[in-house]
Amino acid sequence: MERAFIVGVNLDGDSNFELSMDELASLAQACEMEVVGRAEQNMEYANTATYIGAGKVEEVRQAAEYLEADIVIFDNALSPVQLRNLQRELDKPVMDRTTLILEIFSTRAKTREAKLQVEVARLQYMLPRLVGLHDALSRQGGASGAMSNKGAGEKKLELDRRRLEQRLTNMKRELDLIAGERRTQRQKRARSGIPRVALVGYTNAGKSTLFNFITQANVYAADHLFATLDPTLRRLQIQDVGTAILADTVGFVRQLPHDLVSAFKSTLQETVEASLLLHVIDAADARKIENIEAVNLVLEEIKADKVPALLVYNKIDLLENVAPHIEYDDENKPVAVYLSAHSGEGLDLLLEAIKVRLKNEILSFTLTLLPQEGKIRHALYQLDSIRHEQISDEGEFILNVQIDKVEWLKLCKQFPKLSEIIY
Fold first, then answer.
1. pLDDT digits over 133-179, tens only?
2. What is the pLDDT of residues 110-123, one digit of tens each?
3. Please, which pLDDT band fits residue 320 given cuts at 50, 70 and 90?
4. Do 276 and 245 contact (CB within 8 A), yes or no?
5. pTM metric for this prediction
């Protein structure tokens, strides 16, 4: 097991700094490293050359050497220059939080799609940080051809970069094909009229344990960060609603690398196109408020922040005097459920809340369209949302419509006239 020394800089008195450092230690442990020490520094702004101050660099070097650390991990994203300088000054491998998360994702990925997504994100992050750049860019003349004015180090770097860029292009092409297949599958599910429910939440909140309890799917679940990467879909029977699709998705984390969010766009689309989100929260975590905010930021980034959500406070078995219950808003709509996925307490309440929310999110109404409004009619048929149709003497289409509220709101944006309809 590798021995890791972690380093963080508190810029401008960030109140969440200690939480972030604790999480960095958990991330290192999730990557099967032993955290042997940590160093912290308060600064107004980062050192452009080494991120931390020169004195702190020496302090970290001595501490890491004394504690026999194999690697130094920074809680902050490092620029290529900072990474090179720190590796030289500390004389040890250095990685930042983003690289660590990518490493974890790499070990967790099981399917071809997940492996491709992680590798694309890793290469996009690695390209400007090519290891070996600091070794030498000694200008050695004498070469011929297009690189005749470049040194051996520069030529090697250029070749490495070109190879990585070509590999990245090939993998993105393959991912696009897989994304197309996923898109087709989602369109089929949308046309079936089956509501979709997606589990989201901070990593290690217990999403997969809850998913397993509801569906008996035996999805990999463990008490560490990012236990699940690949989206898992299962059919679920809900009273008074019928069949629904339940999706377990990748967990979120603070400072989730943008490249990773971008690479997992196809997977996260299950969240964007859901009828209802189950936002799973570790009720026993002292950082739950910050974790909720972090999840909401990612949902906003992937444009899923407008999807209706039900808060699910999990792990109440770790709290005192908290019984399973449902919280309602002023309109008597369930907004939160308190339960334990580990013991199963409160699961019946969750299913009841899902039933009420989905019934509220499925719209049923009669729609009359003029003969020239065939595009709207065609779009509704594509979504398999027309339950009955008749044509009036004037040639109008009288449609009995049953449609997911999220899909209806999308149609309203596409056809503004629909926004005037009262249902």
1. 433 333 334 444 444 445 555 566 677 778 888 888 898 888 888 77
2. 778 778 878 888 88
3. very high
4. no
5. 0.69
